[in-house]
From TrEMBL:
Its main location: membrane. The chain crosses the membrane at residues 6-26, 38-58, 70-89, 109-128, 148-168, 180-200, 248-266, 295-316. Keywords: Membrane, Transmembrane, Transmembrane helix. This is High-affinity iron transporter. Pfam families: Cupredoxin_1, FTR1. Belongs to the oxidase-dependent Fe transporter (OFeT) (TC 9.A.10.1) family. It is found in: Membrane; Periplasm. It comes from the Bacteria. It is a multi-pass membrane protein. Residues 326-428 form the EfeO-type cupredoxin-like domain.
Length: 707
């Protein structure tokens, strides 16, 4: 109970004292009407901190330590700037202690709104800086402890820090104003120096600043940070028992500059006679403030109270749920929380040793369970030289915390309790899972490929529309009756154009097949219907080819062509509106190739059917080739062997087509001959398409993309 009490006292004392000084300052300058802004800043900071802790507990998430440290560093730097500005404004205002002071304060803290929001922001930063870290520490207490002793101790520490702030406010109003400005100004500068040194440390722990990390002195044996006096000094002045060079230099440089400026003799300013008596000035300005401020901030304060109440309720619910999970039989144990494929390592730490002291884990994700076997709150870090990779702070005696880290192969060190204690060793060995994860390209690597594929689809569907627009003119020679078939059948180029259109549609199939209604109308086969080619629902490219071969009248074929044109027009619109995903490129192409491999055998029993089949294979190859070209840049880095295998399998299909007289030149696609393909030739084409589909189907796994 004592350890969490001291930790929370340390977390809260800085914020409480800064808020107390601001409140006392407002009281001194007769600006008590601005106190709602102070309370609004406090309530907003507490409420949002509680919401953040509850949200992560409900999501069963670990707050990333680096992001937490970086957040605290940024807030610390902002707070230092605002506090420094406040001190020097106070110094300037202190030059006039009598009637001019009220006028100066009225001008600087006008109730137009800017000063109110500035106060809210200053107080918010002072409280939020410690609030977020505090709520995560409280959640850790609930998760680690099955009793309420540690939680009560932590809440008692917060309560005492609040009382110190209230005491400063109550006592400060009795201090002489000149002394108040001087002493509190120096005190705030000392606090700000500690904040600055702490922000530098946070930058180091976030991995941003890793210079000047040699320890200047180590007083942990005499005055540790977690002792009662160390906690008070840490809260007041940012005391650290083992500061490094960068922190000491930042602390000292800040104080040298700011204290020199603060105590530098102020240039005398000629007294300005007030335009109205001092008594009248006070009576004129003060009512204005009190009259306007509550109305302008009433809604803000009410909103901040609502945020605090809701945040407290959410945090309480999250804390109770974590307390239940921590009980025997609950599901909150680290073993239950760890994913089945994530290795788990338990490390016990004391003030000066890790057990085991040498740990070896595979590269990738690893979950560490850190158990404190010492008698004081300790921390555990993974270090790469001086850089902090991961850490857990404020692990209470007898309790544990978990940390999930993603580690690259290499040799690292572990801090074991105290920072000056001998360090343990952490060896991370190479693993196949880590190599696959490291090879996974970022999503941004696919932006260009997806955009190009979208353009490709729209270009090819436009070509298909052009072919279908030209088809009615191919149905009959000039001069024949419009509603009759030519006596000797339709011109050969009509069937050739339909075959070409079928091959053109195959270029779209990887995505078009997802639109089942249109795909069934455009590319369905007679065998897909109960009445085969006599079924009224049988329409599309195959139906038109059947009609051409049977020399059906134009009155039957033209409506089919018009319907097909409408379906393709709708397809073009859907392709333009489609949202493409990286994982779908390879998956859809693999499915299209596999389907093509099943349709080829038995399709070429006549020369015209041979042309039909070859155009079908040519279109399937073109679609697969485009996918391969788009994914090749990222696949070459992730799995060059698979890329070579895919290219070889597609080249096999291309060679088989060339053997049948199919030109590799897209512009010569219409010249594909009509040939009779024997069963062996069809089987060879089918087998080559299937092998290409298998290679294409491995791409997502190689790139770490989920299907």
């Amino acid at each position: 109970m004592l350890v969490p009490f001291l930790i929370m006292l340390r977390e809260g004392i800085e914020a409480a004292l800064i808020v107390g000084i601001i409140a006392s300052f407002l009281r001194h300058t007769d600006r008590a009407a601005l106190m709602p802004a102070v309370w609004a800043g406090v309530f907003f900071a507490l409420g949002l901190s509680l919401f953040a802790g509850a949200g992560l507990q409900w999501m069963a998430a670990e707050f990333p330590q680096k992001q937490q440290e970086l957040f605290e560093a940024v807030v610390g730097f902002i707070a230092v700037g605002m506090l420094t500005g406040m001190v020097f404004w106070m110094r300037k205002a202190a030059r006039s202690i009598k009637s001019e002071l009220q006028a100066s304060v009225d001008k600087a803290l006008s109730t137009s709104g800017s000063a109110s929001w500035a106060l809210i922001g200053m107080v918010f930063l002072a409280v939020a800086r410690e609030g977020l870290e505090s709520v995560f520490f409280l959640l850790a207490i609930f998760q680690q402890s099955t009793g309420w002793g540690a939680a009560v101790g932590a809440l008692a520490g917060i309560a005492l820090s609040i009382l110190l702030g209230v005491g400063l406010y109550k006592g400060g109003v009795r201090i002489n104003m000149r002394q108040f400005f001087r002493y509190t100004g120096v005190f705030i500068l000392l606090v700000a120096a500690g904040l600055l040194a702490g922000a530098v440390r946070r930058l180091h722990e976030a991995g941003v600043w890793n210079h000047l990390q040699q320890v200047v002195f180590d007083s942990s044996a005499v005055l540790p940070e977690d002792s009662a006096l160390g906690v008070v000094l840490g809260g007041l002045l940012g005391y650290m028992h083992a500061p490094v060079q960068g922190e000491v230099l930042a602390w000292a440089a800040y104080l040298v500059v700011t204290l020199a400026m603060f105590f530098w003799p102020a240039q005398a300013v000629p007294a300005v006679k007030p335009s109205v008596p001092a008594a009248d000035l006070a009576t004129q300005s003060t009512p204005h403030a009190s009259a306007t401020q509550p109305a302008s901030l009433g809604g803000v304060v009410l909103g901040s109270v609502l945020v605090l109440v809701l945040g407290a309720a959410a945090f309480w619910q999250a804390a109770v749920s974590s307390q239940s999970a921590a009980k025997p039989g609950g599901d909150g144990s680290p073993a239950a929380a760890a994913a089945a494929d994530v290795p788990q390592v338990t490390i016990e730490i004391s003030q000066g040793r890790c057990t085991p002291n040498a740990v070896s884990v595979p590269a990738g994700k690893v979950q560490f369970r850190i158990v404190n076997k010492g008698e004081r709150a300790l921390e555990w870090e993974i270090l790469d030289g001086v850089m902090v990779l991961e850490e857990r702070e404020n692990i209470l005696p007898g309790l544990s915390q978990t940390l999930t880290a993603r580690l690259a192969p290499g040799q690292y060190q572990m801090t074991c309790g105290l920072l000056n204690a001998p360090r343990g060793t952490l060896t991370v060995t190479p693993s196949d899972a880590f190599k696959a994860e490291a090879a996974k390209p970022p999503v941004t690597a696919f932006i260009g490929a997806l955009a190009e594929y979208q353009v490709y689809l729209l270009t090819e569907v436009a070509s298909l529309q052009d072919m279908l627009q030209a088809l009615p003119q191919r149905l009959q020679p000039a001069g024949d009756a419009a509603q009759q078939a030519p006596a000797d059948g339709y011109p050969a180029d009509a069937l050739q154009l339909v075959a070409l259109a079928r091959g053109q549609y195959q270029k779209l199939v990887p995505l078009a097949a997802q639109f089942g209604d249109l795909n069934a109308r455009i590319d369905a086969r007679a065998a897909d219907f109960a009445l085969r080619d006599k079924d009224p629902a049988f329409v599309g490219l195959h139906r038109i080819a059947v009609g051409l071969k049977a020399a059906e009248g134009a009155e039957q074929l033209l409506p089919l062509i018009t319907s097909l044109q409408q379906d393709v027009e709708q397809l073009a619109q859907r392709l333009g509106d489609a949202t493409l995903q990286p994982q779908n490129l390879a998956t859809n192409s693999a499915k299209a190739l596999e389907r093509a491999s099943t349709l080829i055998p038995g399709e070429a029993t006549t020369p015209e059917e041979g042309r039909w089949a070859l155009q079908f294979v040519r279109g399937s190859l073109a679609a697969a080739d485009k996918t391969q070209q788009l994914l090749a840049p990222v696949l070459a880095n992730a799995n060059p062997a698979l890329l070579q295998q895919l290219q070889a399998s597609l080249e096999k299909v291309r060679q088989l087509l060339a053997d049948q007289g199919v030109s590799a030149d897209e512009a010569q696609a219409a010249t594909t001959p009509g040939v009779l393909l024997n069963p062996v030739q069809c089987q060879n084409l089918a087998q080559a398409l299937y092998q290409a589909s298998q290679s294409m189907g491995k791409i997502n796994m190689a790139l770490g993309l989920q299907p």
